[in-house]
Specification:
Blueprint: E1 12-16, E2 21-26, H1 37-52, E3 58-63, H2 81-100, E4 105-109, E5 113-114, H3 116-123, E6 126-130, E7 134-136, H4 150-158, H5 160-169, E8 173-174, H6 175-181, E9 186-188, H7 193-205, H8 209-219, H9 221-224, H10 227-240, H11 244-255, H12 262-265
Parallel strand pairs: 2-3, 3-4, 4-6, 5-7, 6-9
Antiparallel strand pairs: 1-2, 7-8
Helix pairs in contact: 1-2, 2-10, 4-5
């Protein structure tokens, strides 16, 4: 491994495979690969490294243990306003970089993918999910706007009707159902997820690199044209971090009880 990826804490592992395939593994299996605040910046840096890494042709990203990634770890201390603003900028850069990287990205969704985790999985060029993996957009369940990918990519993948249903309700899908509606590329038995992803990655790594990268660039124009929608939703999500609904969702999680959103009790609309 070159010095490119030697800046992390071990919560995200980077490994070179044959033929220029790079394997990224989110490595907090005891917390279902949820992210601490420093991990958001680390992941952002890894994508920037991938973009300038001449040794890498294809990237595979997966999670350690039974989960892919379940989003932000809500057990950590509440983010300060400064934390929230920093996260907004980090997320803006992450999404822009993932779309700009011309090397194919494959997500191996080996288990639950929620919020940020589902965002990373769906922003990949090819997504391979365990047929029994649980996929949840999840933002509205914790009282915040679906801001890190949904407005950008869901409508292109599954259409507006399915998008609004699953994003507004945060209803879960299995990997098999996600493939049926076109949200992911493939679903396979859980034990086949990473081997299949690495197989596809190896196939692409042996293919015509310029043609593959130019094709990705052309296809991603659909997404880059929608970046202003993403940035709006991300900004609205950060505003929600200061709201009463988000505070109640975090407290309910800590107390292991159902959420009682203040805005749902307000007579005239959302609580301030």
């Amino acid at each position: 491994m070159s010095d490119l990826y030697q800046h992390g804490t071990g919560d995200i592992l980077v490994e070179r495979k044959d033929n220029g395939v790079l394997l990224i593994t989110i490595n907090r299996p005891d917390r279902y690969n949820s992210l601490t605040l420093p991990m958001f910046e680390e992941m952002n840096q890894i994508w920037a490294d991938v973009e300038r890494d001449d040794q890498t042709r294809v990237v595979v990203i997966t999670g350690a243990g039974k989960a892919f990634c379940t989003g932000m770890d809500v057990a950590q201390p509440d983010p300060t306003p400064q934390d929230a603003l920093a996260m907004l900028e980090t997320e803006r850069k992450r999404v822009a970089t993932m779309l700009r990287i011309e090397k194919p990205i494959i997500s191996a969704i080996n288990g639950p993918a929620v919020g940020y985790g589902l965002s990373t999985a769906l922003l990949a060029d090819i997504s391979i999910a365990a047929d029994d993996a649980v996929l949840i957009e999840g933002h509205t369940k914790v009282g915040v706007t679906a801001g890190d990918h949904a407005a950008l990519i869901w409508p292109l993948l599954v259409g507006m009707a399915k998008t609004k249903y699953y994003v507004l309700t945060s209803e879960k899908l299995t990997g098999a159902e996600a493939e049926r509606i076109g949200l992911v590329s493939l679903s396979v038995p859980r034990e086949q997820v990473l081997p299949r992803a690495l197989e596809v990655a190896s196939q692409l790594a042996r293919g015509p690199q310029q043609a593959l990268r130019f094709t990705k660039r052309a296809l991603n124009a659909w997404l880059t044209n929608a970046v202003p929608q993403h940035e709006l939703s991300a900004a609205l999500e950060i505003l929600d971090f200061a709201g009463a609904d988000y505070a109640e969702a975090r407290q309910a999680f800590r107390e292991k009880r159902p959420v009682d959103f203040p805005s749902a009790r307000a007579a005239g609309g959302p609580a301030n």
